Predict the structure.
Amino acid sequence: MTDKSKQDRVVIFDTTLRDGEQSPGATMTHDEKLEIAEMLDEMGVDIIEAGFPIASEGDFAAVSDIAKQAKQSVICGLARANFKDIDRCWEAVKHARRPRIHTFIGTSPLHRAIPNLDMDQMAERIHDTVTHARNLCDNVQWSPMDATRTEHDYLCRVVEIAIKAGATTINIPDTVGYTAPRESAALIRMLIEKVPGADEIIFATHCHNDLGMATANALAAVEAGARQIECTINGLGERAGNTALEEVVMALKVRNDIMPYRTGIDTTKIMNISRRVAAVSGFPVQFNKAIVGKNAFAHESGIHQDGMLKNAETFEIMRPEDIGLAATNLVMGKHSGRAALRSKLKDLGYDLADNQLNDVFVRFKALADRKKEVYDDDLVALMTDQASEAAGDHMQVKFLRVICGTEAPQSADLILTIDGKDHQVTAQGDGPVDAAFNAVKKLFPHDARLALYQVHAVTEGTDAQATVSVRLEEDGKIVTGQSSDTDTVVASARAYVSALNNLVVRRAKTKPEDELKSAG
Ligand code: KIV
Ligand code: ZN
C-alpha cells in the first residue's frame, strides 16, 4: 500500500449487531445475526462489531459463531473496562481469522461519577484493562465513552495511556449526539496534534444522531484525520440512532471531489442489506430516508418527472443501480413462473436451493392470488415471515375469523394447532387485534408482557401487506415474532403466535442452565 492510498482509505466499522441491536425492540435472533454478519462481510465491511459477549449467553454465542463464519472482516466484540468482560470477549472473538477486542469506559465527568473513580483511578483502570486486552489480542480498540463531553486535557491524557498500553484504534464516541461538525473535526485534530503516539494508531469516529448530525459529524472527523467510521445499516441504534453506513459510504463516493477518501464497500449491496435489517429488526426505514428510503429515487412532481425523462442527472445525484436498486423494478404477479421468481429473489440477495424455492413459490402464489402486483418489498416480507416457517413449531394459527366494526365488543374465533392437535375458542376484545390476542391467550395461557406491537405497510395501496412485529417479555427474557399478510389481524395473530413459539423454545433452552446453577 502506498502512503497516499493508506491516507485515503477509510475503514468501515459496522455496529448494527451491537449498538444497533441495543435499540429498544430491535432484538434479532441468532440466525438473523449470522445472516446479517455474512451480508456485511460480503459487502466489504472492514470490521463487524458482532455483539457484547458478556451481556448474555445469546450474545456470546452470536459473536463466537460470527467469528467462526467470517471470511474477510475483522470480528470485534465489546467489553467494559474489567478483566472479566475482556476475557469473555476474547473467548468469543478468538475464533475469528482476524479478531478485535473493543473495550470502553465513560470518561466525562458525568460518567466518571458512576463507578465513582477519580481521574487518577480511572487512568489506572484504563492502563490495566487495555494492557490486559492487548496481552490477549494484538488488535485492540479503546473508547472513552462520552468523549465529546470529556475535558480536553483529561481526554488527551487517557488517550495517551491507552495508546501506550497497546490500543491500536482509538475511537472517539459522541455518545449522546451532542457535537456538531466543526467541533467534531476540531476534537480529532486536537488529539492528533497533542497526543504522543497518535500517528501510530487509527482514530475512529462514532456518532449518535440525537441532533440529526451523526453523518455530518462523522465526515467532519474524517476530514480532520479520523480513518475509521463507526456506523450501522439504516442508522439503527439507541434513541435517534447512529451514523448510517449507506449515508457515509455514498457521500464519500458521490462527493469524492471534495472528500477524497475511499472505502472498500460494494455499494450495490446496500439496498438488500438495508431491506433485510429493516425486516429482521422490525424497524422500517422511513420513506424519505437518504439513500435507502422508498422515496429516495421517486419523482412525483411534473417538472421533476419531465426532467428525469430527458436526463436522469437533472434530479438524481446517484444512480439507483449504484446502491443495488434494479433499474427496472420488475413487478411479479400471479402469472410469474418459478424461474422469474428465482431470478428476482437472487437479485434481492436470496440464493435458494430447489426445495426452498418450491416452498417459497407456493407462498408466493398464495400472495399473488390475493394481491395483483407483488413488489420487491412484498417478496422480502415473504422471505422474512417467521410465522410461515412453522413446521417444527409448537403452535400454528389454523383458522381465524374476526367480527369487527362500530358495534363493540369485537370478537375472534380461532383454531390453534398445538402440538399437532386443533383447539378452538372464541374471545372478545377491545378491537379485532385485542380479540385475536385474547383468543390466543385463552388457548395458551401465559404471563408474558406485550412489550411491543408494531404494524407497518410493506407497500402502498389498500391491498398492501402489513408486517406486524410483536415483542414479549417474560422474567427478563425477550422474544419477538413477525409476520406479514394482506390481512392485518391475521398477520398480528401469527406474529403473536410466532413470538410465543420462540418463548417456548427460550424456556426450554434456559431450563437446564437454571438447574445447573441451583445445583451449585
Ligand atoms: O456510543 C458509545 O459511546 C458507544 C461506546 C460503547 C463506544 O457505543
Ligand atoms: Zn454508541
About this structure: The chain is about 40% helix and 20% strand.
